[in-house]
Amino acid sequence: MTDHVKIEAEVEEDNTKVKKNKLKAEAKAIKPDERAIIQEKTNTEEKSLIYIIGMGPGSQEMMTQQAKDALEASDVIVGYTVYVELLRAFYPGKEFVTTPMRQEIERCRICFSLAGEGKTVSMVCSGDAGVYGMAAPMYELQQENKAYQQTELVVLPGITAANSGAAVLGAPLNHDYCVISLSDLLTPWEQIEKRLIAAVQGDFAIAIYNPSSHKRKDHLKRACDIMLTAGASPDRACGYVENIGRDGTKAHVLTLGQLRETPVNMFTTVFIGNSKSVIMKDKLVTGRGYQI
User: Fold this and answer.
1) According to the model, what pLDDT value does residue 46 have?
2) Per-10-residue mean pLDDT, the chain, length 292
3) Overall pTM surpassing 0.85 (yes/no)
4) CA distance linking residue 271 with residue 170, whole number of Å
5) Computed from CA positions of residues 166, 167, 168, 172, in that sequence, does the dihedral angle turn out positive or negative?
6) Interior CA angle at 201 toward 211 and 169, to 5°?
7) What is the pLDDT of residue 58?
């Protein structure tokens, strides 16, 4: 190496050392809160993604475009077996993971595990994910596990049975209303009873979810008795819809007294009118109060 080249090499080495020292000095000069912001940005960029999707009644026509786009963008679709089977044919090439009923928390853990592998995941729920769906347990589980907190959760709305069933019946929820589930798997029956009484006393129209199952065949009858005792008239206008948005959709209108004696299945949503609701041919209508 000539002296000239050697000098240039030494100068370049010195310049490199100066740059490194300058970067170290700048790093030390960054305030703690600024470092936190930088770290937060880095963490955000590294976050995996889980969509929590309300798929409505199940048909493609009643799913939002936002939900469809998220499913297309996902690597894996996770859900209760019955709901996933409604989607499988429309999303070929996707990985599907299912769990049976009453394994909801395990289903949530599977989503976080798959997301941790770098996959984009969709957790699907019938109706709306935030109405008796999986949105809340996903957030609750994430809150309890630091490893899950690197995953971003995005909730996408769907048409819940109260709205889709109401459309079939006409306008049963056109004034103040509430939604009450008769399932006592997670809510004590005593609490459900209090809510039914309060709804009648407040003169709300009511959408009733989970009115019956193999183990809860008498729950709707018990609920009718509670509402009658609370002051609802036996002639109060009611209705129910089976298999909303699916093959075999059927709607019925009847009085509360008749509803008490009517067997329904787990795929039924029941509507109780308020004191001024009326039956108009085959529709159930709760007026808003306009002068007609």
Assistant:
1) 61
2) 43 45 42 42 65 94 96 98 94 95 94 97 97 98 96 98 98 98 96 98 98 90 98 98 93 98 95 98 97 90
3) no
4) 11
5) positive
6) 45
7) 84
| Strand ranges for the chain from DSSP E | 48-54, 76-80, 95-99, 121-125, 151-156, 170-171, 177-181, 205-209, 237-242, 250-255, 268-272, 278-280, 283-285
Q: Are 288 and 175 in contact (CB under 8 A)?
A: yes
Q: Which of 103, 145, 138 is CA-nearest to residue 123?
A: 138
**Token pair recorded at residue 20:** 């490194």
Helix axes 135-144, 104-116, angle to 10 degrees: 60
- Element (H or E) spanning 45, and its range? helix 32-46
How far is 22 from 24, CA to CA, in rounded Å? 5
DSSP designation for 96: E
- At 111, list the tokens: 């989503």
Query: Which tokens sit at 225?
Result: 């008795």
Nearest to 206 by CA among 184, 223, 186: 223
Q: Hey, is 269 helix, strand or coil?
A: strand
What pLDDT score does 101 carry? 84
**Residue 171 bridge partners (DSSP):** 285
Q: Which residues 6+ apart lie within 8 Å of 171 measured at CB?
A: 283, 284, 285, 286
Q: What pLDDT shows up at residue 27? A: 41
**How confident is the model at residue 102, as a pLDDT?**
85
